[in-house]
Design goal:
Length: about 160
């Protein structure tokens, strides 16, 4: 009886590890330099911030150096300037769900940011994404929706 319980527990543990590993596959994209275009649309902001938030809704283009390690986190975070701590919730070869905490944006205004998003890979050189952003602090809450388009530019990244 005891031997059967040990074998059953071992098999269950192996099954859980195999299922967990299957949920976290790296994205199937080329490594190297990517060009990312991000547009953020904000809502629920106070009137005194209207001009600043509308100015922030213009597209921003930045470069991200994607390494093999980045394919298991948020590959487009490098170069964004947001400096979030990213956690992958799910990842397949074509889709990744992430959350970000501790982001730099909003800190100057005494606000904290929480981010939740999806990255979708169309092919090894193109992808899209969207992130919902919640900024809270000073008795206020603002929401943002960031849309991303990424395109692989080349195999090598410029020196940092």
């Amino acid at each position: 009886m005891r031997k059967g319980l040990i074998v059953g527990a071992t098999c269950s543990a192996v099954f859980v590890l195999v299922v967990a590993a299957a949920q976290f596959q790296p994205l199937n994209v080329r490594t190297g330099l990517w060009q990312i275009t991000k547009t953020v649309t904000w809502t629920d902001y106070p009137p005194q911030m209207a001009a600043m938030m509308k100015a922030g809704s213009r597209p921003i283009t930045y470069s991200s150096c994607v390494t093999a390690k980045d394919l298991t986190s948020n590959p487009w975070a490098n170069g964004s300037g947001d400096k979030c701590t990213w956690t992958v919730l799910n990842s397949t070869s074509t889709d990744m769900e992430v959350t970000g905490i501790g982001c730099d944006f909003g800190k100057d205004s005494g606000m904290t940011a929480d981010v939740h998003g999806q990255i979708h890979i169309e092919d090894s050189e193109n992808g899209t994404g969207s992130m919902t952003v919640t900024l809270t602090g000073n008795g206020q809450t603002m929401h943002g929706l960031a849309k991303y388009a990424g395109k692989w530019v080349g195999a090598s990244c410029p020196a940092r």
